[in-house]
Write a structure and sequence with these properties.
mainly alpha; 23 helices; about 5% strand; binds zinc ion
Length: about 550
């Protein structure tokens, strides 16, 4: 009888030690979080407010304040002893409580990203700034005349003269040789930083630190490629037929400059519907407010703090910002009565409701979207309604006859837009991934290999230029483009889930169950779950390209 008793005592001692180690580690984590929040919460708010003020006024003083506040916030994550503490807690494996463990994971990644040697980071910023200046100083030159990017796009969209199109396209591509060498140097520099941080290259580091597994993302891109390849090929035939007629050429004589866009990233206007005329006498803000209120996600508190219309000096685009993760949510817009701004205000308020309806009992770190692309998905889900004839009818913008009349063209146009964009995003994702894996390879060749494979364009004969370097995102917004596509896939997945299981009508109008569902399953969980777990909890499936294909391919 003695032995078992001793064993039991030893076992319970071990267990006791285990619990106490867990308790100890979790207490240390709690202490860390308390210290972190004391510093980070006020700085987060200050930085968000300063950026907001800079964007609405545009004055150099406000921009200087904003830059300083962002720097102070970023500095938190450079602290080496804090990182050492997080690393020890992470390696111990004893922080098991789910909320604490999730915070540990997110904070560990944030601090890991901040551990880059200041000297290396300074060099990176210097290289990026120089490249950025080269892009902004560059003007395409055509017949001795300088052209802005907007003018280039205008000629590509409107001219029907092949020689002019070719010359314009080629003149814009001259930025390539200006920046290509610098970008390759920057890519190698970023890779060196990644390796010092423990990753095999910068692409892998960027995805992993943002909470994405590159293999998981690649698998989604493969799935989407399979689902869109044939439909895109058919659609591309239609596009080519249309352009061949437009330019008086044979389809196989079409060149990359014939697709009305520098990169063939946007759909050509084959199915014209003039949506603007339906919004001419409307206030998109009022419509959006009524719509969101109708689905149980009132946005009055957001609008009250927002800056919605044009003003001198103000940022001309649109964004949404969560100032304090405690209900101060604002959106900057420059609303005009047209369909673009209808889409935009619906989109930005989608980000807005995601932030505003968070769960304020969650810790600060978890009161955020599961991932930047999941909030993008909510924004896309709502933005798409701006050109949805059923929604427009139910919102009282057009009558039933008009709605039915424009339905086929609207559907085709959206389908075209989505498919064209999805093939372009394939090029961007796969090119960047491969470039960071091996920056020494023939990048000019790789780029055209991708463009030919995914966009079905033909490389101009004998062309060997750094055309990849003409897309500014490759250099300055690295390894992020894929999130735009993931945001579209998820918007479709939620749209299908909601219209099948939750909403009574496909436009959501007046259906409060939609708001209830989103609040409970998407907004309130914040970032407490890994993004793909949140998607599975809210739709019964992990992120899949199936529903995007269902909506836009079949
Ligand atoms: Zn957005």
């Amino acid at each position: 009888m003695k032995r078992p008793t001793i064993l039991i005592i030893i076992a319970s001692l071990l267990m006791f030690e285990c619990t106490s180690k867990q308790e100890q580690s979790e207490n240390r984590m709690k202490e860390f979080i308390a210290g972190y929040e004391t510093i980070a919460v006020p700085l987060f708010r200050e930085a968000a407010l300063a950026s907001w003020n800079a964007n609405i006024t545009g004055t150099p003083e406000e921009w200087a304040k904003s830059e300083k506040a962002s720097f102070e916030l970023a500095k938190i994550f450079t602290d080496t002893s804090s990182f050492a503490e997080l690393k020890e807690l992470k390696n111990s494996g004893f922080v098991k409580d789910s909320l604490l463990a999730r915070q540990l994971e997110l904070l560990y990644n944030a601090y890991l990203g901040g551990q880059i040697e200041p000297e290396l980071l300074a060099q990176q910023i210097k290289m990026e700034t120089e490249i950025s200046q080269k892009y902004s100083n560059f003007r395409a030159t055509l017949n001795g005349k300088e052209l802005s990017d907007n003018q280039v796009e205008e000629i590509l969209r409107n001219s029907k003269v092949s020689t002019e199109l070719k010359a314009t396209w080629e003149s814009h591509k001259m930025i390539g040789p200006v920046v290509a060498e610098d970008i390759i140097k920057l890519v190698k520099h970023r890779n060196m930083i990644a390796r010092k941080t423990g990753f095999s290259n910068y692409h892998e580091m960027t995805l992993k630190l943002s909470g994405q597994d590159p293999a998981e993302v690649t698998q989604l891109f493969d799935e989407l490629d399979d689902l869109t390849r044939d439909s895109f090929a058919l659609l591309k035939d239609d596009i080519d037929t249309y352009f061949a007629k437009r330019y008086g050429l044979k389809a196989d004589e079409l060149e990359p400059w014939h697709y009305q866009n520098r990169f063939f990233q946007e759909a050509p206007v084959i199915y014209p519907v003039d949506f603007n005329k339906y919004y001419e006498k409307q206030d998109p803000v009022k419509i959006a407010a009524a719509f969101y209120d109708g689905i149980g996600l009132n946005v009055d508190a957001i609008l009250a703090k927002s800056d919605l219309y044009e003003k001198p000096g103000k940022n001309q685009h649109a964004f949404c910002t969560d100032i304090d993760r405690s209900g101060d949510v604002r959106t900057l817009n420059n609303v005009k009565p047209d369909s673009y701004w209808m889409n935009t205000i619906l989109h930005e308020l989608g980000h807005g409701v995601y932030s505003y309806y968070n769960d304020r009992s969650l810790p600060f770190t978890l009161r955020d979207a599961a991932h930047s692309f999941t909030t993008e998905a909510i924004a896309n889900l709502f933005g798409r309604f701006a050109t949805d004839p059923v929604w427009m009818n139910e919102m009282g913008l057009i009558d039933k006859n008009e709605s039915e009349k424009i339905m086929p063209a609207s559907k085709n146009a959206l389908r075209l837009e989505m498919l064209v964009f999805s093939r372009w995003a394939q090029v961007m994702y796969r090119f960047e991934k491969s470039m960071y894996e091996d920056p020494e390879q023939d990048l000019n060749g790789l780029w055209w290999e991708m463009v030919e494979k995914y966009q079905l364009l033909t490389k101009p004969e004998g062309r060997n230029m750094p055309d990849w370097a003409t897309k500014i995102h490759v250099a300055l917004y690295p390894c992020y483009y894929h999130n735009y596509l993931l945001g579209q896939l998820l918007a479709s997945q939620w749209y299908y889930y909601i219209t099948t299981n939750i909403a009574k009508n496909p436009s959501f109008v007046g259906d409060k169950t939609v708001g209830d569902y989103l609040r409970e399953k998407v907004f309130m969980p914040g970032s407490r779950y890994y993004w793909n777990d949140m998607i599975e909890k809210s739709t019964g499936e992990k992120l899949t390209a199936k529903y995007y294909a269902k909506q836009f391919v079949e």
